[in-house]
Amino acid sequence: MTTHYLVLSALLFAIGGVGVLVRRNAIVVFMCVELMLNACNLAFVTFARQNGNLDGQVIAFFVMIVAAAEVVIGLAIIVTIFRTRRSASVDDASLLKY
Amino acid sequence: MELYVPILVLAVLAAGFAVFSVGIAPFTGPKRWNRAKLDAYECGIEPTPQPVGGGRFPLKYMITAMLFIVFDIEIIFLYPWAVAFDKLGVFGLVEMVLFIVTVLVAYAYVWRRRGLDWD
Amino acid sequence: MNGTIQAPTIEYALLAPMLVVFGAAIVGVLVEAFAPRYLRSAIHVPLTLLSLAGAFALTIWQAAAKGIPTKAAAMGAVAVDGPALFIWGTILVLAFVSVLLIKGEDHFVAAASAVPGSAEEEQALHEGAAHSEIYPLVLFAVGGMLLFPAANDLLVAFVALEVMSLPLYLLCGLARRRRLLSQEAAVKYFLLGAFSSAFFLYGTALLYGYAGSIDLAKISTAVGSVGGQDTLLYIGAAMLGVGLLFKIGAAPFQAWKPDVYQGAPTPITALMASGTLVAAFGALVRVFWVGLGGLDWDWRPVLYGVAILTMVVGAVLAITQTDIKRMLAYSSIAHGGFLLVGVIATGKAAAQNASALSGILFYLVAYGFTTVGAFAVVTMVRDAGGEAWHLSRWAGLGKRSPLLAGIFAFFLLAFAGIPLTSGFFGKYAVFQAAVSGGALPLVIVGVVASAVAAFFYVRVIVLMFFSDPAADGPSIVLPSRGTAAVVGLAVLATVVLGVYPQPVLDLAHSAAQSLFVR
To answer: For this UniProt entry, which segments traverse the membrane (chain B) (predicted)?
Structure first.
């Protein structure tokens, strides 16, 4: 049954979402976002199986590409700010407020 | 059975190449004594005690890793195309060439900006 | 394995404007790779401007000479219809103007990898280094902006969303001055943007599970016919909505906007405030109308609430701002709320749809020009540390530089929607469509929010003209030709659209008349 995979995907997505909200380290936050994207991929592939067409699997490829591009850009930005502040905590980045 | 002949031939070719290159190396290569060659094999890096907590990697690793990810993952589009390239015909070929050219542009940029240099 | 695969057909002519922009971006990367450093900017600026102008000409040619296609291009993946062509034209013009602003002064960091305040940075500044990658990045972002509102399936929309956003994340972190703020803006924008696009993607996955396709038209058919899986549909639609509303900065997803607008280099803020908003609204309307039109009884009340919240939050929080760029950001949030009123005003009847849609399109043009102009003025008011953002530094600007202060006051009045400015007709068109669509309470909230917003616009004007200038007040830099052209164009557009809006209104109306192809 595909239900299990969908439940797993929803769980992964939720874990990722909660991680984004509660974790402090920008790298970990970012990893949680990637977890969410992978949860989406799992859902796509499962639905592809369930719907009996290959669209979902093709979409998963595209999502992987986009995720890779996002990793590169995200790490570049996070490393830059880490080199400036010697800290990757999202709580420390608080110059912009109100 | 004849379906598997190409795979078998390929396996034989691959094994032959591997055995040949390893076998011929002692005879053709220069022999120079080097202490590092006698050390425990650790990916070419001198074995050093790891700092507590794993330590930090130099940024070079990250740049190389990022470049690897980008070029590696873009190539996944080649697989579906390779499976059906004969059925996709000229259109598929042209599109794939265009795709590779675009990736190549990024590669040229990295190369010219010395992103591939280790030091 | 013996089945034949139909090679897809791609209407290259229809996609030409986008292809020109992406092609120029790729050529730009090659220029970065192979041209010597001193030549790069000299090649990039004409290349960027010419490609944007060329894409604009192609868009016009397509709309005028070839007629509006009735079928989505590229196997139904990209819909080049009336609204899409209008939005393309708008984005291309706004991007052209923003590029003029980008090349105007030295807004960008000399070496992004150098730690702020380090010897390395000193040296880069001394050598006159510059990141000319800005131009290809802007072109990639603009290409994504063109694709986003034309995307006719959710995967293309997601890819376009990322192609548009990823370069912008980087560009946000490249300000020359106040680099800490800029880097922080980039991190915040990136993390929140990636978070929201994950929601968009999961929504896409659920809708794919529901409808068995990601094609908007097929989702629309499924909404009417597939039963028993409403959970997938509702959660999917809601998550899609979160992703889209984040991009337009609607409350309660507006938190990134002030931070990012403040920290980003001002020309990039101008591009984001105009181009991204236009693109995101185009996509929002398309997804909600083409894909989820059959569900409008369910999403309309939600958008109703979101629109009210957005208008109120934008207008009220703008009052408390002491920073000019943050104030403009909150004003942009409020304008997003006014535009959402237009989205809600769309209805079942074709005439109602057309009037609401044309109102949105006109509003986007009017607001886009005015906001680019306003940010252009912000780049010109400077003191020792760069642009003077704090409102107190703007006190008495009217006495030191009446012309500039007058122009800025004019833009603010246009934001407020005073008659004889473009903002008035924009608001009028949207609110009128909402009234005839039966959303009167929403219009009342909108008018009240406009009044609140007008209060803080007028407060800035009073500050500029009726208070004494500080002794060490900011200096007004003599604008470069590019910046002057931007301000001039923005003033011209704001006046013309305010005094004689009919041609653009007609154009928007005829674009909206054809509605969306499926």
So the answer is: 6-27, 61-82, 88-110
